[in-house]
Specification:
This is Hydroxymethylglutaryl-CoA lyase. Keywords: Lyase, Metal-binding, Transferase. Its EC number is 4.1.3.4. Belongs to the alpha-IPM synthase/homocitrate synthase family. Belongs to the HMG-CoA lyase family. This protein is an alpha/beta fold. The protein has a single domain, classed as Alpha-Beta Barrel (TIM Barrel), CATH 3.20.20.70. Helix content is 42%, strand content 15%. It has 12 helices and 8 strands. It has an 8-stranded parallel β-barrel with strand order 1-2-3-4-5-6-7-8, surrounded by 9 helices. Helix 3 links the parallel strand 2 and strand 3. The longest helix has 17 residues. It is globular, with a radius of gyration of 18 Å. Bound molecules: 3-hydroxy-3-methylglutaryl-coenzyme A (HMG). 3-hydroxy-3-methylglutaryl-coenzyme A (HMG) binds next to helix 1, helix 4, helix 5 and strand 5. 3-hydroxy-3-methylglutaryl-coenzyme A binds next to helix 1, helix 4, helix 5 and strand 5.
């Protein structure tokens, strides 16, 4: 049957291989990351953040990002992305042919210094340099500016909405192809999400491309739904809900991929995802991450049995 054109589509971007693993002590081998990627692709995921081009001494877990990206580029229909913290990282992403590079910009001045050793405006200036490097190389690597701590920060406390909106616009002016908003430390609530995403949409329109929520205080899925109501159709998530920024005190797990896929499908959105296959992958990843804290609820309850008796 052809897809119903009235069915809303939603994209779940799996960020477990980057955001998920960056705070996990157990080193996952390149072979297992590739197995993870292949299974995620087979389960229908078409956008995956595969690693970070950061100094290896900072994040040895992600030292094999170039190899994982090279494999991701062989998978049909897959749109891989990588995180880049500065121009050097961007040059590596461009050289490796990454379709997307994601630049994390913290709207909290204090978290920005802790995470990237730069002020938010210095990161904006870096984005302009990345755009120039990309254009000079004739590369097709596109730039997403992800504005983090958009709902507050565990180091600084309050982050004014006006500052978040100013930085979204500054990123686009500097040459970012699109922008997204992130709740790095799980301070967001659905009403606040709706308000900020509506304002962001009014300001930058279709440049606003996604939402990244952490489930630190149990509001991750509610926040996704609030963002959905404002027209957001791309959501970051991690298999088994792992993740968190190592330089943001109190940051913990991302929204769980399999739970989010289940919610979106139950809401009637077309995700292209096979939820039982995601649950099977979660079991495999759980075996690789023995002793680590995992999250999510669908794995425990299982899928509802709705077929007529
Ligand atoms: C930005 C830096 C590099 C500054 O770190 P720095 O020490 O100030 O860097 P530097 O420019 O002084 O260079 C020091 C050395 O590192 C090298 N270097 C410099 N850059 C790179 C690079 N890209 N790749 C490889 N090597 C690099 C550079 O070449 C030099 O090497 P040396 O001359 O000493 O041999 C560092 O602070 C950093 O990597 N920070 C990133 C930390 C991180 O990964 N945080 C987590 C991601 S953000 C997040 O999780 C939030 C998010 C995105 O998920 C959304 C949300 O929830 O909000």
């Amino acid at each position: 049957m052809p897809p119903n054109p009235d069915t809303p589509r939603a994209t779940v971007r799996e960020v477990g291989l980057r955001d998920g693993l960056q705070s996990i002590a157990t080193i996952v081998s390149t072979a297992r990351k590739i197995e993870w990627l292949d299974a995620a692709h087979a389960a229908g995921l078409r956008e995956v953040e595969v690693g970070s081009f950061v100094p290896v001494r900072l994040l040895p877990q992600l030292a094999d990002t170039a190899e994982v990206l090279a494999h991701a580029l062989t998978l049909p229909g897959l749109m891989p992305s990588v995180l880049v913290p500065n121009l050097k990282g961007a040059e590596r992403a461009i050289a490796c042919g990454a379709p997307w590079m994601i630049v994390p910009l913290s709207a909290s001045h204090a978290h920005s210094l802790a995470n990237l050793r730069k002020t938010p405006d210095e990161v904006v200036a870096d984005v302009a340099r990345m755009r120039a490097a990309r254009d000079a190389a004739g590369s097709r690597t596109r730039i997403e500016g992800g504005v983090g701590t958009a709902f507050g920060c565990t180091i600084q406390g309050e982050v004014p909405e006006a500052e978040v909106l100013r930085l979204l616009q500054a990123l686009i002016d500097a040459g970012a192809d699109r922008v997204s908003l992130a709740d790095t430390v799980g301070y967001a609530d659905p009403a606040g999400v709706q308000r900020l995403f509506e304002k962001a949409r009014a300001l930058v329109g279709e440049h606003l491309a996604g939402a990244h929520f952490h489930d630190t205080r149990g509001l991750g899925l509610a926040n996704c739904y609030a963002a959905w109501q404002t027209g957001v159709r791309r959501f970051d998530a991690c298999l088994a809900g792992i993740g968190g920024c190592p330089h943001a005190p109190g940051a913990s797990g991302n929204v769980t991929t399999e739970d989010l896929a289940f919610m979106l499908e139950r809401m009637g959105a077309a995700t292209g995802l096979n939820v039982p296959a995601l649950l099977a992958l979660r079991r495999r990843v759980e075996g690789w991450l023995a002793g680590e804290t995992l999250h999510g609820t669908l794995w425990r309850a299982g899928l509802p049995r709705l077929a007529a008796a």
